[in-house]
Specification:
This protein is α+β, with helices and mostly antiparallel strands. It is 16% helix and 29% strand. The chain contains nine helices and 33 strands. The longest helix is centred in the middle third of the chain and has 19 residues. The two termini are 48 Å apart.
């Protein structure tokens, strides 16, 4: 961090209306000690501590507004809460903000006494968002039950509120703010919204297990560790003592969570998969729902630690994680390793290298044969002769002129223009081909034996003029004869206006499911920003982008002229257990092999076109070897009509989403 630190640390062991706790004051004292040792005196730290009776609802809200509100551009504002948490039903007006059917709450010292309410997670989102809007960096650490969204001990649990709060009883700005894009900040939470957090006797004192594990990770990994790395390490600490809670990071998408604790330069993750020790075995947080499968004898899939030749063999593939065995090396059990696939079972995407200029062909074949992380063949593509099968190769690399190669599809239509493969060009070409192969694998994800077929649906709903939040019950749009939703620009006062929709995700089953919504674009980008991952309650609906409208525009580099069009594929992944969405993130094709990171500038995907960013919830591997998963794909065509009249609202009559 470059500026000052403003920290509000709240620890509550004694309550007026609910059972006491034992370790919250110790959590806050340890956090304050850590911060004073980490932050240079000339940068603060300006730490305000509210303990027990001091931490009334009024004092906590005032501290968030007044103390943290002093932070400005370049500064960091930290909110740390250790105490009881609970839940309450969602008011009907706020359904689009909570996929879990319950709001999460923090209990202040005087909550539930004399008419004083809990502090609701949506109020906390509003208060921290106001702080972040000043331009400072904001981070929240919440160690309470149901904390992902907002009692530390199941034996001292606090009952859920039986009724939904009246919106009028909450902070008056909440109703209006619910329609606006939230300001992003980093959140580290002790557990998922439906779980309880634990406190235990640790190092001679009572502590919240998550606070203790997070501070241990901060000391061990040092000041350069990112929030994502710290959360992964803290999760490992928690798993040693409890199987009831899974710490959570928010947001999951690459960006602000990939900077050091208390702020700094964003360092994008080297990969979307991590190898870590969990429950006496080595695991990676990817499974069959990510496209992994076991191979035949001698064709076992493997992963390699990014940037090294250290490999691990995949032994068992579950729905959301896989068990692996290191090959010829001993990992450190306290370290989490970023990994990439180094070998996957055939079939990979087949590629033919064709052309009259044989030296160029040989150069590309050599690059394909050494493109793997450990110097072996590419794990994603397999060179084949042009007539290897009745259908032919899935991709064609055409080398018709010296030193230049173009990429074409199975039908010989161009995907990329011919590029120079001299010097490092062959490696960049192979990286582009691998990128195309990975996107194809995502689009082909399917589980033909899933029992969840019919249990979920994905709907697009027309957004009407001046409408800012998703309607709960309006009928969905219907697909055209080609199975796609066709959305059209409309003319308004001499200019083209892009179509706008809401996206609803439904869980029709009687059990809780975990949803991730992928967006695959014609620019060969895969993004999870619309709905990066959350649990959706039984017979409940969730809304993408917190219920805000989604405007589907042509990419910025494509002129809005009659006949212009683009296509997106929305893929809903639903699973019985939580899984990581980070492994799906892929940049647009323009960024593949460029070395610019996982989310390059100029992204042409749906989220990149709209400039939208949303804070969502992270995911991690959970036990459940028999858990089921399912995918549902919805194509969307956005087009500019010719002279034909378009219905008001920009959506063709009768065109909507399959359910």
């Amino acid at each position: 961090m470059n500026g000052r630190l403003f920290a509000l640390l709240v620890g509550i062991d004694r309550y007026r209306a609910v059972t006491p706790l034992q370790g919250c004051g110790n959590d806050v004292a340890q956090a304050a000690e850590f911060l004073r040792g980490r932050v240079p005196a000339q940068r603060g730290p300006a730490i305000e501590v509210l303990l027990h009776e001091q931490a009334t609802r009024e004092a906590v809200v005032d501290g968030l507004r007044t103390h943290l509100g002093q932070a400005g551009p370049g500064d960091t504002a930290l909110f740390w809460f250790s105490g009881h948490g609970s839940r309450a039903a969602v008011p009907p007006q706020l359904w689009h903000l909570e996929p879990g059917e319950k709001l999460q709450t923090l209990l202040c010292h005087d909550s539930r006494h004399g008419g004083v309410p809990d502090l609701y997670d949506k109020e906390l989102l509003l208060l921290l968002g106001a702080v972040a809007a000043t331009g400072c960096h904001v981070v929240a650490v919440v160690d309470s039950c149901h904390s992902h969204g907002a009692t530390r001990n199941p034996q001292r649990s606090v009952a859920d509120l039986p009724t939904a709060p009246a919106v009028e009883a909450l902070l008056p700005q909440l109703r209006q703010a619910a329609a606006r894009p939230p300001v992003e900040y980093v959140s580290l939470a002790a557990c998922r919204s439906f779980e309880t957090a634990t406190e235990d006797w640790l190092d001679g004192r009572w502590h919240g297990l998550f606070s203790w594990g997070l501070l241990a990770a901060m000391r061990r990994l040092g000041p350069a560790a990112t929030y994502r790395e710290l959360l992964t390490a803290a999760r490992c600490e928690v798993e040693q003592y409890s199987s009831r809670q899974v710490p959570q990071l928010d947001p999951v998408t690459p960006g602000i969570a990939d900077q050091p604790f208390l702020g700094g330069r964003v360092r994008p993750p080297a990969t979307g998969m991590w190898l870590r020790r969990s429950r006496h075995e080595w695991r990676i947080d990817a499974g069959s729902c990510h496209g992994l499968s076991t191979g035949a004898d001698g064709d076992d899939p493997r992963v390699a630690v990014a940037g090294t030749k250290n490999e691990a063999r995949i032994l068992r593939v579950g729905a959301n994680h896989s068990v692996v065995a290191p090959i010829g090396w001993e990992p450190d059990e306290d370290t989490q390793y970023p990994v990439v696939l180094s070998r996957v079972p055939i079939p990979q995407v087949t590629v033919a290298v064709e052309g009259d200029h044989h030296p160029t062909v040989e150069l590309v074949l050599t690059a394909l044969g050494t493109a793997g992380p450990t110097g072996g063949p590419s794990p994603y593509v397999r060179p084949v002769p042009g007539a290897a099968s009745a259908e032919g190769p899935q991709l064609r690399l055409r080398a018709d002129q010296p030193g230049r190669v173009g990429i074409r599809d199975r039908d010989d239509a161009p995907i990329c223009p011919a590029t120079d493969v001299s010097g490092d060009g062959a490696r960049r070409l192979v990286a582009t081909v691998e990128h195309l192969a990975r996107v194809r694998r995502v689009r082909a994800l399917t589980n033909p034996v899933s029992g969840l077929a019919g249990a979920v649906s994905l709907q697009l709903v027309e957004a009407r003029a001046a409408e800012v939040t998703a309607p709960a019950h309006r009928p969905a749009l219907l697909p055209g004869p080609d199975g796609a939703i066709h959305l059209r620009y409309r003319r308004d006062r001499g200019r083209w206006v892009a179509p706008t929709v809401f996206v609803r995700l439904h869980n029709h089953s009687s059990r809780q499911l975990y949803f991730v919504l992928l967006n695959v674009t014609e620019g060969h980008r895969v993004h999870t920003g619309l709905f990066p991952g959350d649990h959706v309650a039984p017979r409940w609906a969730a809304a993408a982008l917190h219920g805000r409208p989604v405007e589907l525009r042509l990419p910025d580099d494509q002129p809005v002229t009659p006949g212009a069009r683009t296509r997106d594929w929305l893929i809903l992944l639903a699973a019985e257990e939580e899984f990581s969405s980070a492994a799906f993130e892929l940049p647009a094709l323009s960024g593949a092999g460029s070395g610019r990171g996982r989310v390059p500038r100029g992204v042409t995907g749906l989220l990149g076109r709209l400039g939208l960013a949303a804070a969502h919830r992270d995911a991690g591997a959970v036990d459940g070897p028999t858990s089921d998963w399912f995918t549902l794909t919805l194509p969307i065509v956005t087009e500019v009509p010719g002279s034909a009249t378009v219905p008001a609202g920009g959506v063709d009559d009768g065109q909507a989403v399959a359910t």
